[in-house]
Structures are given as structure tokens and as C-alpha cells.
Amino acid sequence: MATTLRSIRGVVPLLDRILVQRMKAEAKTASGLYIPEKNVEKLSEAKVLAVGPGAFDKDGKRIAPSVTPGDRVLIPPFGGSSVKIGDEDYLLFRDSEILAKLTDEK
């Protein structure tokens, strides 16, 4: 029997897992033309929604994750575990699989 989740809040990452949602690419060009959905590229940018408590090192000490909910991160184009809730797709990555944390510094 499959479990049906109604909200992403029902997903709590374990250990060093990080739940992200890939940012949606702009489906409209600068000149105002709409791009068909199948031609829109997947972005490597994602928003962190939830973070596990962290993994353990060889001495049994917990290693805190490097990101927090709300952060913007770069993720690899492939990989992660896909989670689908309703019409939305989410991904679970290990902390070590996150490529970079994005900041708004200029």
C-alpha cells in the first residue's frame, strides 16, 4: 500500500540528506516569446527546503550540514533521489553532493 503525502512538510530528511526544489527556468524570452516546456532547460539552481541533522564522523561526533533551509544552492544536473508530491518534483541529495551555496553578495 503506497503512502500519499499531501504536503512537503511530511518529508523530514535523515542524517546528511538535503531536500531541495529545482528552480524553474524562465519560459519566456527577453522579447516576450514563450518557449515550449520541453525546450526549457533544467536549471542547476535549487532552493533548500529541509535539512537533516547531519552525519556522524568516525569518532561518533555529528557533522553539521553546510546549508540551511532557505539557502540557494547549485546541484548536479543528474543524481539525487526524486520525490514527487502532487504536481511538484523535489530532490534529496547528500550534503557532499551539493556543489555550491549561492549568495547575493555583489
UniProtKB/TrEMBL annotation:
InterPro entries linked to this entry: Chaperonin_GroES (IPR020818), Chaperonin_GroES_sf (IPR037124), Chaprnonin_Cpn10_CS (IPR018369), GroES-like_sf (IPR011032)
Pfam families, sorted: Cpn10
SMART domains given in the database record: Cpn10
UniProt key word Chaperone: yes
Protein name, entry field: Chaperonin 10-like protein
Taxonomy, superkingdom: Eukaryota
One Gene Ontology term of the molecular function aspect: ATP binding
GO CC terms, sorted: mitochondrial matrix
Family named by the database record: Belongs to the GroES chaperonin family.
Function: Eukaryotic CPN10 homolog which is essential for mitochondrial protein biogenesis, together with CPN60. Binds to CPN60 in the presence of Mg-ATP and suppresses the ATPase activity of the latter.
UniProt keywords, alphabetically: Chaperone
Signal peptide: none
Organism of provenance: Lipomyces tetrasporus
